[in-house]
Amino acid sequence: MIRFDAITIFPDIFKSYIGESLIARAIAKKLIKINVHDLRKWGKGPHKQVDDRPFGGGLGMVMQVEPIFKALKKIRPINPSMGLRKKAKSKIILFTPRGKKFTQKIAYKLSKLDQIIFICGRYEGVDERVAKNIADMEVSIGDYDLMGGELPAMILIETISRLIPGVLGKPQLLKERVSKSGGFLEYAQYTRPEVYKVRKVHKAESWRVPKVLLSGDHKKIDKWKKAHSKVIE
Ligand code: ADE
């Protein structure tokens, strides 16, 4: 069982995602556990403040270190009420576009952990002391700016969960996508009908499945799959 903890000021964003499809099934089968923590629980004052203006000036607000530190004190594996072994392998990930680019390879490594804690930033950023002193790893899901770390957290949850034995219906699905070098293999696929006839404005077209896939010749089919795949080390 791998346990995910997401710290966010928008816990509801996760609700429908966690309640649907293979993720919901993996939770029901106790293969994964997802806890979403509302950071405001650790916020200050009547408004449960979790952000403030940046020192040195600048636009927008910055998330404060204190509520995040307090949240982590509660949900780290050393807390026995969490039901995790004392020696549980756990990592704290902070999402930021400046972080290490997330890949399938990183997903494999993370899938061996017992617990992954996600800090989902919002506003214009997170006090740098979180990256320096609290997080084990800063992760980016790509070179673009999002509004927060909630989507990145769901992307990591999904990519990592499908690597946990039993989460995908057929374990062969996993094997087929792993190349010899341990990379990631994705190839073009077709299903019925063999020919799909369409009428475009000026002409009729037939979109056909490549003949080789209908040939039953597995050597040739494998060669075709390789030629139409992408391998990422
Ligand atoms: N927060 C904002 N943009 C992000 C990105 N591209 N990856 C991870 N976290 C982010």
TrEMBL record:
<dbReference type="InterPro" id="IPR029026">
    <property type="entry name" value="tRNA_m1G_MTases_N"/>
</dbReference>
<dbReference type="Pfam" id="PF01746">
    <property type="entry name" value="tRNA_m1G_MT"/>
</dbReference>
<dbReference type="GO" id="GO:0052906">
    <property type="term" value="F:tRNA (guanine(37)-N1)-methyltransferase activity"/>
</dbReference>
<comment type="function">
    <text>Specifically methylates guanosine-37 in various tRNAs.</text>
</comment>
<keyword id="KW-0808">Transferase</keyword>
<dbReference type="GO" id="GO:0005829">
    <property type="term" value="C:cytosol"/>
</dbReference>
<comment type="similarity">
    <text>Belongs to the RNA methyltransferase TrmD family.</text>
</comment>
<dbReference type="GO" id="GO:0002939">
    <property type="term" value="P:tRNA N1-guanine methylation"/>
</dbReference>
<dbReference type="InterPro" id="IPR002649">
    <property type="entry name" value="tRNA_m1G_MeTrfase_TrmD"/>
</dbReference>
<keyword id="KW-0963">Cytoplasm</keyword>
<feature type="binding site">
    <location>
        <position position="121"/>
    </location>
    <ligand>
        <name>S-adenosyl-L-methionine</name>
    </ligand>
</feature>
<dbReference type="InterPro" id="IPR016009">
    <property type="entry name" value="tRNA_MeTrfase_TRMD/TRM10"/>
</dbReference>
<keyword id="KW-0949">S-adenosyl-L-methionine</keyword>
<protein>
    <recommendedName>
        <fullName>tRNA (guanine-N(1)-)-methyltransferase</fullName>
        <ecNumber>2.1.1.228</ecNumber>
    </recommendedName>
</protein>
<keyword id="KW-0489">Methyltransferase</keyword>
<keyword id="KW-0819">tRNA processing</keyword>
<dbReference type="InterPro" id="IPR029028">
    <property type="entry name" value="Alpha/beta_knot_MTases"/>
</dbReference>
<dbReference type="InterPro" id="IPR023148">
    <property type="entry name" value="tRNA_m1G_MeTrfase_C_sf"/>
</dbReference>
<feature type="domain" description="tRNA methyltransferase TRMD/TRM10-type">
    <location>
        <begin position="2"/>
        <end position="230"/>
    </location>
</feature>
<comment type="subunit">
    <text>Homodimer.</text>
</comment>
